[in-house]
C-alpha cells in the first residue's frame, strides 16, 4: 500500500538543509512517496497521509499565522497542540515547576524588568528559532538593557538565563527520540557569535555523534515524560523529540531546550539505523 508524506520547509529552505537525505530511501522502503513543500506555499497538505514539520524555521516572525496553518492540516506531526505549546520557550518554566532539571529561566514580558543574574547570562526571545535574537552578556548593564529593549520594542517576550560555561568546552548534547523511544544523540557547538547561515534562519553549528552518559539520558527522559504529562499525551504520540542538555556548574545535566516542533535531528551524525527508526515511527503515527 502506497502512502504519501510531505516534509514541511519554508520559503528560504523549501527542501530543508539536507539532513533528511538518508530518510528518503528509508521511507520509500516502507511504501511512502515523499515530497517537500514550504508551509505557506499553498500546497495540498490535506491530500497527504502524514505531514511532517522539518524546516519551518521562519515561523517566529509569523507565529500566529503558522499556528493557524498547523491547526488546519490533518495528519500533522507533531500535532498543532504540541506546536503551540513548544514554540514559546515559556514552557521551560513549566518544566522547572514540574521538577525537571532545567537551566533556570526568567520570563520577561514587554514592559517588565528582569532580575539580572550575578554571573554571565543570555537574553533571547521566548519565540525564536536557530539562535536568532539570542545574545550573551558578562554582566548587567547598558548593552543588556539595549538588547532587551529591542526585543520588547518588537512586542516580544524575552527569556533571561544564566550562561552555562560548560557550553564553551563541552557544547550541548542533543538526545533524539522517535515515537517516544530513544534513537541517538549528538553534540552541538553553536557559539552565539557564530555566523548565521545563508538562509538567515539559523546559526552554523558543529555537530558530532555522541553517546549520552546515563545521567544525561535520565534527565532527557524526565523532560520528555514531564512534557507529555503537561500536554496530556503519550510519548508514542510524538513522532520526534530532541532534548538539548548542558552541564551546570556542578556537573549536573540541565535541560536547555526541548524541541518538539521542527528540530534538526542529526541524521548525518547518527548510525545507519536512525533513518530506519524514523521511517518506522512515521508509519506508526498512521496506526
Question: Can you put this structure into words, describing what you see?
Answer:
This protein has 287 residues and is an alpha+beta fold. The protein folds into 3 domains: 75 residues, Rossmann fold (3-Layer(aba) Sandwich), CATH 3.40.50; 116 residues, ATP-grasp fold, B domain (D-amino Acid Aminotransferase, Chain A, domain 1), CATH 3.30.470; 57 residues, no CATH class. It contains 8 helices and 13 strands. The strands form 3 sheets. A 5-stranded antiparallel beta sheet has the order 11-10-9-12-13. A 4-stranded parallel beta sheet has the order 2-1-3-4, with helices on one face. The longest helix has 18 residues. The model has no long low-confidence stretch (mean pLDDT 93).
List the helices and strands and how they pair.
Layout: E1 3-9, H1 23-29, E2 32-38, E3 50-53, H2 63-71, E4 76-77, H3 80-86, H4 91-97, E5 106-108, E6 121-125, E7 135-137, H5 142-153, E8 158-162, H6 166-170, E9 172-178, E10 181-189, E11 206-210, H7 214-231, E12 240-247, E13 253-259, H8 274-285
Parallel strand pairs: 1-2, 1-3, 3-4
Antiparallel strand pairs: 5-8, 6-7, 6-8, 9-10, 9-12, 10-11, 12-13
Helix pairs in contact: 1-8
What keywords describe this structure?
ATP-binding, D-amino Acid Aminotransferase, Chain A, domain 1, 287 residues, five-stranded antiparallel beta sheet, 8 helices, 3 domains, globular, 13 strands, Rossmann fold, ATP-grasp, nucleotide-binding, alpha+beta, four-stranded parallel beta sheet
Amino acid at each position: 500500500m502506497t502512502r504519501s508524506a510531505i516534509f514541511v520547509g519554508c520559503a528560504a529552505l523549501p527542501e530543508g538543509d539536507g539532513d533528511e537525505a538518508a530518510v528518503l530511501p528509508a521511507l520509500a522502503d516502507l511504501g511512502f512517496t515523499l515530497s517537500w513543500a514550504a508551509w505557506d506555499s499553498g500546497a495540498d497538505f490535506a491530500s497527504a497521509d502524514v505531514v511532517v514539520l522539518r524546516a519551518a524555521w521562519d515561523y517566529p516572525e509569523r507565529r500566529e499565522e503558522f499556528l493557524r496553518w498547523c491547526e488546519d492540516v490533518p495528519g500533522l506531526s507533531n500535532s498543532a497542540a504540541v506546536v503551540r505549546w513548544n514554540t514559546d520557550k515559556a514552557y521551560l518554566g513549566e518544566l522547572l515547576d514540574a521538577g525537571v532539571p532545567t537551566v533556570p529561566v526568567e520570563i520577561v514580558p514587554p514592559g517588565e524588568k528582569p532580575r539580572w543574574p550575578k554571573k554571565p547570562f543570555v537574553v533571547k526571545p521566548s519565540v525564536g528559532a536557530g539562535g536568532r535574537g539570542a545574545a550573551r552578556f558578562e554582566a548587567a548593564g547598558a548593552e543588556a538593557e539595549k538588547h532587551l529593549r529591542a526585543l520588547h520594542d518588537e512586542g516580544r517576550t524575552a527569556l533571561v538565563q544564566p550562561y552555562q560555561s560548560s557550553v564553551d568546552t563541552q557544547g550541548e548534547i542533543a538526545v533524539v527520540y522517535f515515537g517516544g523511544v530513544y534513537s541517538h544523540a549528538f553534540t552541538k557547538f553553536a557559539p552565539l557569535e557564530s555566523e548565521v547561515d545563508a538562509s538567515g534562519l539559523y546559526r552554523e553549528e558543529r555537530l558530532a555523534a555522541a553517546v549520552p552518559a546515563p545521567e544525561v539520558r535520565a534527565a532527557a527522559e524526565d523532560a520528555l515524560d514531564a512534557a507529555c504529562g503537561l500536554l496530556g499525551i503519550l510519548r508514542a504520540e510524538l513522532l520526534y523529540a530532541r532534548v538539548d542538555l548542558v552541564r551546570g556548574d556542578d556537573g549536573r545535566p540541565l535541560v536547555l531546550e526541548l524541541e518538539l516542533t521542527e528540530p534538526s535531528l542529526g541524521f548525518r551524525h547518527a548510525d545507519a539505523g536512525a533513518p530506519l527508526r524514523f521511517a518506522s515511527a512515521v508509519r506508526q503515527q498512521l496506526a
